[in-house]
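FOLDING PROBLEM:
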Amino acid sequence: MANNAEKAAKNTSFIKGVRSEWKKIIWPTRKELFSYTAIVAVISIVLAIIVYGLDTIIHYLLGLIIG
C-alpha cells in the first residue's frame, strides 16, 4: 500500500497535468458560441419535426391495420 508521500506525489503530478491540459483548451469566441448554439437549435428542431412526422405516419398506419 502506498504511503502518504507517494499519494501526495501522485496528487501533485495529477494537478500539474490538469493545469497543463487546461492551458491547451481553445475557447470559442462569443460569435462562434452563438453560431454553434443556433446550429444546434436548428438541427434539434428539424429532427423533432422529422420524428413527429414519422410518429404520426406510423400511428396512422397502425390505426389502419388494427382498425
Residues 56 and 62 are 10 Å apart (CA to CA). The chain has a mean pLDDT of 92. The chain has two helices and no strands. The longest helix spans residues 30-66.
